[in-house]
Design a protein that fits this description.
By secondary structure, the protein is α/β, with parallel strands linked by helices. 42% of the residues lie in helices and 23% in strands. It is built from eight helices and twelve strands.
Length: 226
C-alpha cells in the first residue's frame, strides 16, 4: 500500500515514515501544503495522511480541492487541535478520519487498516504493464518467464514509470519521489538509473522502452503482451 504524508514537523514526519516502512508500506513524504496537493493529485496513493497546519496551504483546503477534482483518496487528518469544531471542519472538507497529536503508532496503523477495509481496497503485490510484471514485494522484474532482480532505487524508478505508463514523468518528480525532496541527487543520478533499467529491460527481452524526452523527463512506452 502506498501512503503520502504531508507533515511540516520534520522529526514527526521522519518518525511516521519509519513506522509505516517498518509495517511494509511504501511512503512518500512532503513538508508543505503546496507539495502535498501536487503529490496527491499526481500520485497513485491508497491513503493520504495530512497535517492541518501546513506552510503554503492548509490541510482543509487541500482535501477540499482534491474532492472538488474528483480525487477520492482516503485521507486521515492530523492536528494538535482537539476541539470539536476543528474535527467537524476536517470531516466536512472531505477527510475520512481525524487524529489528534500526540498519538501512538499502533493507533495510526489500526486506523489505516480500518480505512482500507472501509474502502474495500485490494493491496496489490504486483504491477503488470505490457509484457512486464514487477513484483512489488521482491522487486523482481519478469518478462515471459525471464526474471531479473532490481536494486531498491532501480525498483523505485521503474515502479514510478510503469505506474504512470505512457505519461511524462519529469526528472524532478523522479528525484523527489525516489531520492527525496532534500537529497543532493541531480539529473545525472536519474540518467544513470535509467541506463541500468534499459539494460535490464533488454536482458529480459521486453518490448517495452523508456523514452527520453529531452530537457523534460521520461515516458514508459509498451506494447500489449502477446
Amino acid at each position: 500500500m502506498k501512503v503520502l504524508i504531508a507533515e511540516d514537523e520534520r522529526r514527526l514526519s521522519d518518525a511516521l515514515v519509519r513506522i509505516l516502512e517498518d509495517a511494509h508500506y511504501q511512503v512518500d513524504a512532503v513538508y508543505n501544503g503546496s507539495d502535498g496537493l501536487i503529490y496527491a493529485e499526481m500520485g497513485d496513493y491508497d491513503v493520504f495522511v495530512c497535517d492541518v497546519m501546513l506552510p503554503g496551504r492548509d490541510g482543509f483546503s487541500i482535501v477540499r480541492e482534491l474532492r472538488h477534482k474528483g480525487i477520492a483518496t482516503p485521507t486521515i487528518m492530523l492536528t494538535a487541535k482537539g476541539e470539536l469544531s476543528d474535527k467537524v471542519q476536517g470531516l466536512d472538507s472531505g477527510a475520512d478520519d481525524y487524529m489528534t497529536k500526540p498519538f501512538q503508532p499502533a493507533e495510526l496503523l489500526a486506523r489505516l487498516r480500518a480505512l482500507m477495509r472501509r474502502e474495500g481496497a485490494v493491496v496489490l503485490d504486483e504491477l503488470k504493464v505490457g509484457d512486464l510484471m514487477l513484483d512489488l514485494q521482491t522487486h523482481d522484474l519478469t518478462c515471459v518467464g525471464k526474471v531479473v532482480h532490481l536494486s531498491y532505487k532501480e525498483f523505485s524508478v521503474l515502479n514510478l514509470l510503469m505506474a504512470n505508463a505512457r505519461t511524462t514523468v519529469t526528472k524532478d518528480m523522479l528525484i523527489d519521489k525516489v531520492w527525496g525532496v532534500d537529497s543532493d541527487a541531480a539529473d545525472n543520478n536519474v540518467e544513470a538509473y535509467i541506463s541500468f533499467l534499459r539494460k535490464k529491460l533488454s536482458f529480459v527481452g521486453s518490448r517495452s522502452e523508456i523514452v527520453t524526452l529531452r530537457k523534460i523527463g521520461y515516458r514508459f512506452n509498451f506494447n500489449e503482451a502477446k
